[in-house]
Design brief:
This protein is α/β, with parallel strands linked by helices. The chain folds into 2 domains: 200 residues, Rossmann fold (3-Layer(aba) Sandwich); 225 residues, FAD/NAD(P)-binding domain, CATH 3.50.50. Helix content is 38%, strand content 20%. It contains 18 helices and 18 strands. The strands form 4 sheets. Strands 3-2-1-4-18-17-16 form a 7-stranded mixed β-sheet, with helices on both faces. Strands 6-14-7-8-10-9 form a 6-stranded parallel β-sheet. Strands 11-12-13 form a 3-stranded antiparallel β-sheet, with no helix packed on it. The N terminus is likely disordered. The chain binds flavin-adenine dinucleotide and NADP nicotinamide-adenine-dinucleotide phosphate. The site of NADP nicotinamide-adenine-dinucleotide phosphate has 24 residues, from helix 7. Belongs to the ferredoxin--NADP reductase type 1 family. This is NADPH:adrenodoxin oxidoreductase, mitochondrial. GO terms for molecular function: oxidoreductase activity.
Amino acid sequence: MAVVLVLVVVLQKKWFSAFTISSPFRLAVIGSGPAGFYTAYRVLKDHQNTLIDMYEALPVPFGLVRYGVAPDHPEVKNVQNRFEEVAQDSRYTFIGNVKYGEDLTLKDLKSQYDAIVFSYGAGQEKSLGVRNENEPIKNICSARAFVGWYNGLPQYRDLELDLTCTDTAVVIGQGNVALDVGRILLTSVVELSKTDITEYALEALRKSQIRNVIIVGRRGPLQVSFTAKELREMMNLPNTKFHTDSELVKNELFTNVDIISKDRPLKRLMQILEKGMSNSIGYKSWTLKFLRSPDEFIAHGNNDPFRAKYVRAVNFHINRLEGPLEKRVAVPTGKMEELETGLVLKSVGYRSIPLEGLPFDEDKGIVPNYKGKILDSDSNEQPGLYVAGWLKRGPQGVIATTMYDAFETAEVIVSDIRQNKPMISKDTINTAKQGSKAIIPILHQRGIRTISYEDWKKIEEKENEAGKAKHKPREKFARVEDVMHVLDT
Ligand SMILES: Cc1cc2nc3c(=O)[nH]c(=O)nc-3n(C[C@H](O)[C@H](O)[C@H](O)COP(=O)(O)OP(=O)(O)OC[C@H]3O[C@@H](n4cnc5c(N)ncnc54)[C@H](O)[C@@H]3O)c2cc1C
Ligand SMILES: NC(=O)c1ccc[n+]([C@@H]2O[C@H](COP(=O)([O-])OP(=O)(O)OC[C@H]3O[C@@H](n4cnc5c(N)ncnc54)[C@H](OP(=O)(O)O)[C@@H]3O)[C@@H](O)[C@H]2O)c1
């Protein structure tokens, strides 16, 4: 009898350990931009026994690769090929049209996953906090909205902008997004029509009267945050002359020559800037204006029947610079300058938002973390909760930066698994976690129509077909209803 009992216990133990060894590690990823995909790629590569479910608020994947990267930069979108490889892995599942925090809660996810990676990016824009910013003045919007509009982001499909009422646009901020929007406004529609820019944006740009784009920064030429390739593209725009405060640029280059010579990217940037200053032929123009901080947006008065409520000008503080070169700050001189314009694009950066159940550092605009492991308000590690991408380190950096950052998070996850660190504990019923198998029916019960990767491929095929007819790489469906319609036909 005793022998039989021992045998039963041994067998049970063996079965149990075999079960636990073969039981896969279930990871949920929230957001399907580069951070989500690169984290998934790395975890799948380094930990075979993993199943990943990626939840995306939009019906379609790829985040800013689809809705941010400029249409005239198609080569950047090649990263989608790597994401495609991840999606083809049998251990990966895409679940689109599911918004974490609205359709899905932390409690839902905790009940079905061992760990969760939050990589939902930076879904808002920074505000400037200047006078009249929140007044309903027409033709003022964020660069985020403008970029989303021309790239087919459903939220901005119906953005109201009139590009026919003015010949001058002011862009506030001097980052790469500012150059993207300036370049799109000045590029010929013949060139743009070969890209995947949306047809309605192309139509509006065809009628556009904008000939001059003024890109305004609060600090000086050495503090711009755009990069050499993007500046060169602006300098090479056909029929477009370049203006700037040449005296200021020359003076800054002269006084800081030693520092510039030791900083290769800065040196390259300044060479392009200096060379571009001789670029003075063209019926269009773009300008880099330095040392200006916006103070107020000014609208046309009601006495102008055609332009009432449209922006007429921006009033700027004129600044001087203070502090050591690496920490230069803009200080108002007390002088002001008004710039006449009929279109204002605010391009001062993006912002992440706090979502249900997650700690959030309002000052930094990130989920607090150590190398991607989420920390609570007392800096304690949260078992099984991770963060990657712009939500982890703020809205800074190109796709390559986001990739390395996502790899760091993935390495921490895999190392935590190997070290048997605590993950999300089982619920009280202690049933095996099922991942999306259990979550998708719950979402359907809540009336949410989930989109699979196969659905996306069908949508993509239709977009490519529609693009072919117009000699474009694709024509994006910019309304969620249109995407759903494709799946119903
Ligand atoms: C306008 C613009 C142009 C750029 N151009 C370039 C370029 O040319 N080259 C380059 O290298 N880099 C470029 N970048 C930078 C690059 O896009 C970022 O480094 C990268 O996209 C950040 O990745 P992410 O995954 O953190 O965020 P995102 O790409 O924003 O992905 C976040 C994803 O999460 C989803 N999401 C949001 N909320 C939820 C929710 N509640 N539930 C579920 N899902 C959610 C979003 O829909 C999105 O799909 C550009 C950035 C911008 C803003
Ligand atoms: N082609 C590409 O590779 C590409 C294209 C687009 C975007 N991106 C990347 O995406 C990231 C985000 O780009 P971004 O252009 O949105 O952000 P960014 O690089 O941070 O630039 C923001 C700009 O806004 C200014 N600014 C911020 N707050 C301001 C305020 N209150 N008043 C006036 N000016 C203010 C900043 O000036 P200060 O420096 O003075 O703060 C800076 O000039 C960057 O890393 C960028 O390189 C890459």
